[in-house]
Amino acid sequence: MDLLIQQVVNGFTLGSIYCLVALGLTLIYGIMEVPNFAHGHLYMVGGYVTFFMMTLYGINYWVSGLIAGIVLAVLGILLERIVFNPMRNSPSTNKFIAAVGAMMFIEAVARVLWGSDFRSIPAIYDNVVMIGGVRLTEQRLIIIAGAVILMVALYLFLKHTLIGSTIEAMAQNRDGASLVGIDVNRVAMLTFAVASLLASAAASLSGPIFLVYPSMGALIIMKVFVIIVIGGMGSIPGAVLGSFILGMTESLGATYISSNYKDVIAFAILVLILSIKPSGLFAKGGH
Amino acid sequence: MLKLSGINVSYGSYLALQDVNIEVNKGEFVVLLGANGAGKSTLFRTISGLLKPTSGSIEFKGHKIEQLPAFKMVNLGISQCLEGRALFSHMPVKQNLLLGGYVRRNDKEGIKKSLTMVYELFPVLKEKENDLAGSLSGGQQQMAAIGRALMSDPELLLLDEPSIGLAPIVVQQVFDAVKIVNKAGKTVLLAEQNAHLALKVSHRGYVLENGRVVMHDRSDVLSGNEEVKKAYIG
What we know:
Order of helices and strands of chain A: HHHHEEHHHHHHH
Order of helices and strands of chain B: EEEHEEHEHHHHEHEHEEHH
Shape of chain A: globular
CATH architecture of chain B: 3-Layer(aba) Sandwich
Structural class of chain A: mainly alpha
Shape of chain B: globular
Strand order of the largest sheet of chain B: 6-7-8-3-9-10
Radius of gyration of chain A: 19 Å
CATH superfamily of chain B: P-loop containing nucleotide triphosphate hydrolases
Number of helices of chain A: 11
Oligomer: heterodimer
Number of helices of chain B: 10
CATH class of chain B: Alpha Beta
Largest sheet of chain B: 6 strands, mixed
Distance between the termini of chain A: 46 Å
Number of domains of chain B: 1
Structural class of chain B: alpha/beta
CATH topology of chain B: Rossmann fold
Helix content of chain A: over 70%
């Protein structure tokens, strides 16, 4: 029983990380209608920035995470300006290729600058706490709490501020957004900034438990891509639910089936859900 | 107030608009008549900056605007309702209206006043303010779209076929509302296929055929014109 509860908590931890990355990916998809394949790589860079802030400059964990978030928001805006904005009126295939190119470029730069070694963000919250007879490390609880806080903040931003709602407005009707005076360029930059910040936060939170390495972006983008397909492309509730479904099945599957199959499970779920509901759990009405 | 001179618009090699000259004066209610495919929507999308003309100029209050991006038009005082309404269908009605006031977002008082005005014009929107825009009936969606366009407190309101797909009684309601808006001082340019009602409420009309203006006159003269009667009133 304790093992089960522990694995459920681990599932929530994984789901929280996926969720922060998936939300950004789905937001960007909503406004561009093309997945930003480089999104996982922004997550990776966020991990490195946090790592170097702490180890090279001895900056506090939380401040390092904050700096990484700001750096990544700027990087996200640059990515939008340099890669995606010039492609705005191109066919989707071109945007796909641009996104894949950006992804390979970022990973290559990371390898040149920082090498291929696995690194670990110094763990400062590695105490074990007992909750109801279950042993949990503090960092796992911090990941879950951090993700929940960020999700609530994102929800409030999108639903209860006018600036935030321009992101959804543009996703729902681009012409309508232009006609009420919303600057499509500004919204695109804002969306990339918010999405990159969330990805960076995911990496800062998970860094002390999982490791930081150049191909971590490629691994998570596959998973997160599965999540937003499961959830329905562009759907926010779908991304949240999909993340926790995947996190939970991976965690339980690794324990009760075999940890060798951990990464296969994601794709098995994808096949299963899409065969029952081909447009995803929360498909949006056609554009 | 709005002056289109020699506007040409083409989709590839297809000329959708040819040498269109239209003038709308302050406070007027002008209707643009034309059958399906005559170029009405193209013309509207060109005025609002969603399309760029291949040649010709558009002046609004003396400024050339034909090269401006769509989102800047609202700041100048032009607000448009597209055919198909272009609402944010997964958002509540009220949020749609508030986004309509996006360009004056710092003018809290003004937005409040406009919202009250829109709710007075279309009381049903007040009742449905928390419903998703996509869940409204066609007529209510059209009202929401007009309401959203009014939230920016525009000087010129462009309405592209608001009557499309609506029951006659709802069309009457919508037109009455537009008439009220016009009386309150807003200049209106309306595109319509349904000439009968449109000519009744408007001051002047232009007739568009195959991308060209073939006739323009006072509305009462147009409604007496045999050709117009045959083609658009039936």
